[in-house]
Amino acid sequence: MEWRVTNLIPANTLKRTSPFIRFALVGVVNTAAGLFIMLFLLNVFSVSYWLSTFTGNVVGAVISYFLNKAFTFESSVRFREGAPRFLAVILGCYFMSYWLSGRIVDAGAVGFLPREWADNAAVLIGSVFYTVSNYFGQKKIVFRQRENN
């Protein structure tokens, strides 16, 4: 018997919940895991900003792919099709989001914070950008269903 996330949730519940709400629920799980790893690496092991955010996002991405495929978008896209698109979306969103958040912090948008908190602020701002851009990328590019005409 194949284990599926969707078997744990009554079918009518999935039909009543929008994909964005399901994405948000999956996002809570993968964001919590990713942020924990990012901030832990950054603050406990003094790992660089880029390596901390990248590592945290890799862990979050693995969780995200499987939960979003099965639970959020209920997609039948094959792994060999979806995985490369997923990787492209994740990397694009990652670099765009964390580059932009770094620039926002560097421009002084969070000037009220002590300088030693700047990287933490950039991580949190980048996470918001990453989540929004990632939703649309996964919905429109990764898990889109082809029309059977």
UniProtKB/TrEMBL annotation:
It is found in: Membrane. It holds the Pfam family GtrA_DPMS_TM. Residues 22-143 form the GtrA/DPMS transmembrane domain. It is a multi-pass membrane protein. GO terms for cellular component: plasma membrane. Keywords: Membrane, Transmembrane, Transmembrane helix. Belongs to the GtrA family. This is GtrA family protein. It comes from Neobacillus notoginsengisoli. The lineage of its organism: Bacteria, Bacillati, Bacillota, Bacilli, Bacillales.
